[in-house]
Design goal:
alpha/beta, 7-stranded mixed β-sheet, 5-stranded parallel β-sheet, 28% helix, elongated
């Protein structure tokens, strides 16, 4: 993230609007009656024809060798590899799934400076738009629909949205994880708030941006993530405040000791953020109103950046317990692979990675998932040939 994207020919807001408009078009099915019925409509209620078309789509499922759920770097990389392997994948990119536009978390950030191949940086929306176009180029069929149910009890697997169902020989789950955020005045998107204008949920992604260099910054949290991100930010910040609502951290001893020993870090115990406000004329964060929950005293904290480090929530609820998850809700994969607890179902990206959570690592695992799926399909094909 930075104060403003560089060398952009279009306003980021207009790009975002264009993406949302594009998301309303169902790729590859424009000529079918089902697609016409499913197009986003301004009418208050669906027509009888649309309802009938949707019912027909559910009753007549599509068939594919690979179904990919998710449209971030992991999902699109998996789609590119699967499509180039002539597996003709179907990808569900979601429609405002978990409040995020098609394209995943990168659509909520501004300039991405740590994705290889873009020395001048690239806007997050633009990057995901390119990924989408590359998926389409090789023949991926994309639906702007959110998967709300799956059935992994037998093969072929079944994947459902409100409008259609798909039978798939293999499934790649790449639905990501949503950074938890706090809600207080000024925490939202511009113009009312300072999200991406000084407020972020990823220090590793955004901490090196010019907006934050040699400036005082704050981190909210008390776990290992907060300790790690605070320590990381000391490379760039003049000072880092850790704001914690309790009088003790829940972080591990080693992470806590490392943070507390850093001379650039100051802890504000028993403290919560009441409000974020601007500074200057750039519409960026200028400071915080903070409150001591013991004394109820409210004071100003001048900072140029605020980072939420209160955890992530993986998008796995729709799985309904059909895959093994860890205690945090992340999909468990077998060592050195993307195989899940169900043979033929694979996981890629932040939905199973709670450590790195980077676009480039998600893309890498998306590649691995597509290769694992291809090998699995070859294996079951060989078994079928032997039976025949």
């Amino acid at each position: 993230m930075s104060s403003a994207p560089r060398q952009m020919t279009r306003n980021p807001c207009s790009r975002f609007k264009a993406l949302l408009v594009k998301a309303g078009t169902f790729v590859g099915l424009a000529g079918t009656a089902a697609a016409a019925a499913l197009s986003l409509s301004t009418s208050a209620a669906p027509s009888a024809a649309a309802a009938a078309a949707a019912a027909a789509s559910i009753d007549s499922p599509l068939r594919t060798k690979v179904c990919i759920i998710g449209s971030g770097p992991a999902g699109h990389t998996a789609a590119i590899y699967a499509a180039r392997a002539e597996l003709k994948p179907i990808l569900f990119e979601g429609w405002m799934a978990n409040g995020i536009a098609p394209g995943g978390q990168l659509t909520t950030t501004t300039e991405v400076e740590n994705f290889p191949g873009f020395p001048e940086g690239i806007h997050g929306i633009a990057l995901m738009d390119r990924c989408r176009k590359q998926s389409l180029r090789f023949g991926t069929q994309i639906f702007t629909e959110t998967v709300n149910k799956v059935d992994f009890s037998s093969s072929p697997f079944e994947v459902f949205t409100d409008s259609r169902s798909v039978l798939a020989d293999s499934v790649i789950v790449a639905t990501g994880a949503i950074a938890k955020r706090l809600n207080f005045p000024g925490s939202g998107s511009p113009p009312e708030g300072f999200w991406n204008k000084g407020i972020s949920a990823c220090a590793v992604c955004d901490g090196a941006a010019p907006l934050f260099r040699n400036k005082p910054l704050a981190v909210i949290g008390g776990g290992d993530s907060a300790m790690e991100e605070s320590t990381f930010l000391t490379k760039y910040a003049s000072k880092v405040y850790i704001i914690h609502r309790r009088d003790a951290f829940r972080a591990s001893k080693i992470m806590k000791a490392r943070a507390l020993a850093n001379p650039k870090i100051e802890v504000l115990w028993n403290t919560v953020v009441e409000e974020a406000y601007g500074g200057g004329d750039r519409g960026t964060l200028g400071g915080l109103k903070i409150k001591n929950v013991v004394t109820n005293e409210v004071s100003d904290l001048k900072v140029s950046g605020l980072f939420f480090a209160i955890g992530h929530e993986p998008a796995t609820k729709f799985l309904d317990g059909q895959l093994e998850l860890d205690s945090g809700g992340y999909i468990v994969t077998k060592p050195d692979s993307t195989h899940t607890s169900v043979r033929g179902v694979f996981a890629a990206g932040d939905v199973h990675d709670k450590k790195y959570r980077q676009a480039i690592t998600a893309a890498g695992v998306g590649c691995k998932a597509a290769l694992d799926a291809e090998h699995y399909l070859q294996e079951i094909g060989d078994q079928q040939d032997k039976r025949d």
